[in-house]
Design brief:
The chain is an alpha/beta fold. It contains 6 helices and 13 strands. Strands 6, 7, 8, 9, 10, 11, 12 and 13 form an 8-stranded parallel β-sheet that branches. A hairpin with a 4-residue loop joins strand 3 (35-39) and strand 4.
Length: 239
Amino acid sequence: MPRFFIENPTTNTIVITGDNASHISKSLRMKVGDDVVICDGKANDYICKIVKIDYKNVVIKVLKCIKSESEPTIKTHLYQAMPKSDKFEHIIKKSVELGITEITPVLSNRCISRPNSNNIKRKVERYQKISEQAAKQSGRGIIPKVNPMLSFEDALNEMSKSALAILFYECGGKSLRNVIETQKEISFMVGSEGGFEPYEVEKAKYYNIIIGSLGKRILRCETVAPCVLSIIMYCTKNL
């Protein structure tokens, strides 16, 4: 069933307006009697039926509320060093599909893309919309949050507060499958096209962050996050 995110749907009848109403009536060509799912963004799904529809408003009746079954049992936070071009958008889409909880862009030393504060604010707004679209498409129970960009050291400081924090380094580290245990939360950092400077890796160790490896092959920066998430979801029985 088509899925739409609406904050705090507290009544038995919900009125959908704006772009969502237009999408239902024009793009999806839905009609009275069709079923839709409304999600409150807190992993609750409301099974609903359309009772009235026009181009500006869609009125739906709530039939029942159930807990979303699509949300993983583990929370994951990706810290992604900014890549070039539209690669970050691709990373968001695939990470959301695979169950990411939160994404934070990071400015590391080897980042070629270095947006200023004004540009990154506009980009983050766009990134959040991409996250929402991917969440709808993949049946998520939440919309993963895309945070404002952090400096490398601020990101390390934030990561160090997680139950398990890993920085993936192309020059070697611990195997991911050997460090995933019973944590309910994992934070991990992925480099941009040029990877990380050796001194950045040493700084991560200072913050007690594990240096991780994905094997002998060198993966593209846009491949790493989906690969890591697939392994995490498999090892935690969420895939």
